[in-house]
């Protein structure tokens, strides 16, 4: 193909046609053409030459130029695209380093291979421009619902035409029993929009909890207006879901508003989600109350909350156990996701048996270690004592209130408990030293001998080792994997060390080692205090 004989306006007409089809700037297509022609020219004049092509935006005329740059003598590397100051004097007056000499060169004859290469460059540039345009259009629409049309299915993934490009609904983001055919209309949630080198950039979902929340927002005007808020959503897509709602207007029932007249509002959402059953429950800032609501329709007898561990025990009547757990654990699993709590459900009989077992275990602890008879040991347990530390270091008055315990008896009890604990501590420290624990960790305040031995078994043997620990490695924590809460056990968790206590201990160690300036901690504390005060004033 000879550029010299081509219709010059044809370039512009082609650029405009491609731009209209792909909905991109015609200038980007022209730039792609310029680059493709420049590559073809380099194959004719030499790859090392700096050949550039400029297409006139009005006439379509393509101008080919060779560019050479003036460089220092010692920097001259490419003799085809660079020349020295001395060499440049032949072409320009008083040349300076960095100046460029632009010379027009004859257009090239493009063979079949060069033409094909140029076409590939144009297609690549057009695709890049199209993807950039698509990303810019959708990057701020993540978290919203969009209607699309099914184009095709690839390996279980559905490719959806969303008007300005293609998006993908992955297999694991489809509701289980859904199937689609080309040209089907589909409503989807834009889960993520991100730049990718290849493949789709818009990722859709119909299983995301946020999809259900957005559907309710569309059906319930009070949610759209902010009068009602969806606080949490838990889903078993296509089967069952729970949503927690709260009303900021005392005259509006949040559950009733979401259900609608004769269930019209919730039914619209159910129909969109292929019959997924939805429990709408009132949200409550009191976690036990919220959990009781979340376990509906089961009736709950009692709730015991361990806030530090994020765990809760629920006691239900025997006949309510299967209802509380649900089919294949569905009800309790959804309630756990909704409340963000680890839930342990037991019957009243099971709780009674567990309490009896704990009572017997603590009774035996006091009998074996304090040399007490069964009656006296049971008396201590009944008064709320659970371990030797409580007996050893409690205020004497708390022992004296027990029937039959005078001052001498109380002193003797504490002396026995302290002797046992001191012997244990000595054994723990000896074991820790045998494992290689250094004195820097043994002398660190805030850690008991039992804790030090536990740390040593976890390969934490110096103060430096301890200072590099994360708070959750010590106190334990929870992570969410595939929608399920997974427990991470902490080294010091058996000793009731909270996350806050772990953070304080770690930071103290870092200060002692000189890793952290105490002044910085004080400044951070003041800043946090000011922010908290500002938030309180804003709420007021």
Automatic annotation (TrEMBL):
A Pfam family annotated for this UniProt entry: KH_NusA_1st
Q: Cite the S1 motif domain residue spans from the record.
A: 143-207
Which CDD domains does this chain map to? Answer: KH-II_NusA_rpt1, KH-II_NusA_rpt2, S1_NusA
Which UniProt keywords are listed? Cytoplasm, RNA-binding, Transcription, Transcription antitermination, Transcription regulation, Transcription termination
Q: Which domain of life is it from?
A: Bacteria
Instruction: Give a GO cellular-component term.
Output: cytosol
Q: Where is this region: Disordered?
A: 520-540
Quaternary structure?
Monomer. Binds directly to the core enzyme of the DNA-dependent RNA polymerase and to nascent RNA.
NCBIfam families xrefs:
NusA, nusA_Cterm_rpt
Can you say what this protein is called? Transcription termination/antitermination protein NusA
* Lineage, top ranks: Bacteria, Pseudomonadati, Pseudomonadota, Alphaproteobacteria, Rhodobacterales
């Amino acid at each position: 193909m000879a550029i010299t004989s081509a219709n010059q306006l044809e370039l512009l007409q082609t650029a405009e046609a491609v731009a209209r089809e792909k909905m991109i700037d015609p200038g980007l297509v022209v730039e792609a053409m310029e680059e493709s022609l420049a590559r073809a020219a380099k194959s004719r004049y030499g790859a090392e030459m700096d050949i550039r092509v400029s297409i006139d935006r009005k006439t379509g005329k393509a101008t080919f130029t060779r560019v050479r740059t003036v460089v220092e003598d010692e920097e001259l590397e490419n003799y085809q695209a660079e020349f020295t100051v001395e060499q440049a004097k032949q072409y320009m007056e008083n040349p300076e380093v960095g100046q460029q000499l632009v010379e027009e060169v004859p257009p090239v004859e493009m063979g079949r291979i060069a033409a094909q290469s140029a076409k590939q460059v144009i297609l690549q540039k057009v695709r890049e421009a199209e993807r950039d345009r698509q990303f810019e259009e959708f990057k701020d629409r993540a978290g919203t619902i969009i209607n699309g049309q099914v184009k095709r299915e690839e390996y279980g993934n559905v490719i959806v035409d969303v008007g300005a490009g293609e998006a993908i609904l992955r297999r694991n983001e489809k509701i289980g029993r859904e199937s689609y055919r080309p040209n089907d209309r589909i409503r989807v949630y834009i889960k993520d929009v991100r730049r990718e080198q290849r493949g789709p950039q818009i990722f859709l979902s119909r299983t995301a909890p946020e999809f259900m929340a957005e559907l309710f927002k569309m059906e319930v005007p009070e949610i759209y207006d902010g009068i009602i808020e969806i606080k949490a959503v838990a889903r078993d897509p296509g089967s069952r879901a729970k949503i927690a709602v709260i009303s900021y207007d005392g005259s509006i029932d949040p559950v009733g508003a979401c259900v609608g007249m004769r269930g019209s509002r919730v039914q619209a959402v159910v129909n969109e989600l292929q019959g997924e059953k939805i429990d709408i429950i009132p949200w409550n800032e009191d976690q036990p109350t919220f959990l009781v609501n979340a376990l509906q329709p089961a009736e709950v007898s009692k709730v015991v909350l361990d806030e530090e561990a994020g765990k809760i025990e629920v006691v239900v009547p025997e006949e309510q156990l299967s209802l509380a757990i649900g089919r294949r654990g569905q009800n309790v699993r959804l309630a756990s996701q909704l409340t963000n709590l680890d839930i342990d459900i037991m019957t009243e009989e099971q709780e009674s048996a567990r309490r009896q077992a704990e009572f017997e275990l603590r009774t035996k602890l006091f009998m074996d270690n304090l040399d007490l008879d069964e009656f006296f040991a049971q008396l201590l347990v009944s008064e709320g004592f659970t371990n030797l530390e409580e007996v050893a270091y409690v205020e004497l008055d708390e022992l004296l209130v027990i029937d039959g315990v005078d001052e001498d008896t109380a002193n003797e009890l504490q002396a026995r408990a302290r002797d046992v604990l001191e012997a244990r501590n000595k054994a723990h420290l000896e074991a820790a030293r045998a494992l290689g624990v250094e004195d820097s960790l043994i002398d660190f305040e805030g850690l008991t001998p039992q804790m030090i031995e536990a740390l040593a078994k976890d390969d934490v043997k110096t103060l430096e080792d301890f200072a590099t620990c994360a708070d959750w490695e010590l106190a334990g924590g929870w992570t969410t994997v595939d929608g399920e809460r997974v427990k991470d056990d902490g080294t010091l968790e058996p000793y009731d060390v909270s996350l806050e206590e772990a953070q304080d201990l770690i930071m103290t160690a870092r200060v002692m080692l000189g890793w952290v300036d105490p002044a910085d901690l004080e400044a951070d504390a003041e800043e946090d205090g000011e922010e908290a005060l500002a938030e309180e004033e804003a709420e007021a």
